[in-house]
Amino acid sequence: MTLSRRAFLQSIAGLAAAPASTLRTAATQTTSRHVRIATGLLATWQSTAWLGAKAGVFEQHGIEMSLPAIAVGGPQAAAAVIRGECEFAHTGALPVAEEVLKGRDIVILATPTSEFPNSFVMARKEITQLAQLDGKKVGVLTDTGQTSVAARITIEKAGATAIYLPLIKFARIHAALAAGEIDAGALPIDMRFAGESRYGWNAFPIREFGTPSIFATTRRLIASDRALVMDVMQGFVETIHLFKTRPDIVVPLLQQYLHIDDRKAAEELYAFHVPVFQKVPRPSFPGMQTLRELLAKKYPAASALKESDIADSSFIDELDRSGFIERLYARGAM
User: Do both 131 and 194 map to the same domain?
Assistant: First the structure.
């Protein structure tokens, strides 16, 4: 049976929550609360909040969600939360860890995807090895963002010293590479296949360091309105479920979000990402030691950085322990 989007959302909103006072369903909401989200990248793996907002998932929890800062770069997304311009951010673990080491208030709530090759150094077709980028121009998002740092490490490990140009947006990197203004650029998997097909670009996986994209807020907000944060996290988990089970809803939204006209390309991109989104998106950092080593060059205190310093898993723990997530997936994609 195929449900309409509204019927599907009503069905998941009606799932019985745990007795814990912080778990609430849409039926208990009487007023709409406005929440702002910042995202670092325009990419499928950082689309969760936008998809949930567009599909009406957060609305079921009395959350009016807006995204005033989309694809502003990882450090800028984290800074928007710290400054109070946004309540939440979908960005990388590296910017969050760096801000924590600076003594600023930001904390990771979830890692929506497992680690996977989500970004590539895309190079002109005549560049067949990364070592050939020695002295060449490479477009990156920012000087310090996670994807940019990982791209630089990948190129340096190949023995090349490149010139890095911060272009802020993936679209600008793509356009500069297509115009021949740069020799290579750090681009997401969302743009890889089209670049290979249309321009003959070569793709080199970026060596991430085991720190996947994250969803974050402040400890201050958790202390002042834990119920609000829990409602957002419940909607976040429900949106991941929507992604994994309802291509009929998600694929058209991805086309809109990523500006993809080709339905088949969007379907392939969706299929690639389904298994990497985590059913239980508990904060996890398999590359924590690498993260420490990278940051210790600038912040000596990083050598003692713990996961608990940068993450609060209590919201996902509570949703998991209550049985909410299991009940959500037991309903399947009706």
Answer: yes
